[in-house]
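Thread: "does anyone have the structure for this chain?"

Original post by V.I.:
We have the sequence but no experimental structure in hand. Need at least a predicted one for the grant figures.
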Amino acid sequence: MASIKLVLRTNQEDKTGHSPLYIRVIKDRKAKFVATGVKLKRNEWDDDKQKIKKNHANSARMNAFLAQKIADAEGTVADHERKRKSVSARKLKEAIKGKDMANFFEYAYNRCERIKGTVSVATYRNYKQYVAKFEKFIGHREVYFDDITVTMLKDYINHMSNNLKNGATTVHYSLLILSVMFRDAQREDVIEENIYPFSKVRVKRDKGKRLFLSKEQVEKLRNLKIEYTGKDEVFRDMFIFSVYAVVYVLVMW
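Reply from O.Q.:
Generated one for you, tokens below.
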């Protein structure tokens, strides 16, 4: 039997001191949250009575609104549990919201195909590669956006660092591509703005090392006979010219 309760998530408090109020659904020890669209200050919410306090300007109207929300949610959950012998917390959340939560991998791979003609081939391949890398870690594609939690991402980081031996920069970009998918989904109204676990996950990138050509390497490049067709020779000459131009400026300076 699933339990339903209103929860003020103070860990998501904004700069004005307001926190979002959610309907929490617990089924088989797994919790899912459904946004009510209501934001309150801590001193405006009575958790024991499950009501907005009278110090809120519209407490009576808002409490009536929330009471209806809870009644609808409880009715929906009861119907689903009566019709199905086994129903997950996620499915109950979807039923309460009235729509299915988007599958992350379905969206991510479709997004890669949609941007294919607008980005370079290398960028397109990187996007698909990093999404596939995350899928391999999960082991299947039945993952929804709200299933990807801070804990899951930290486990993924540990997997990349310890098992795959990825450096910090690779780990950073692996997460970056996933976070881009979340932001794109938010802009397209596929998911809500509050679904974004990456704000609580930080990975430091390795410091890059700047490499320089030696004098001998520059000379070898200058004397290299290029037999390819196209503009390779022009590009080589432009590079050599820029090198000598920089050297000239430094000497004259």
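V.I.: this helps a lot. The chain has a mean pLDDT of 84.
O.Q.: and Residues 104-200 form a domain with the DNA polymerase; domain 1 fold (CATH 1.10.150.130).
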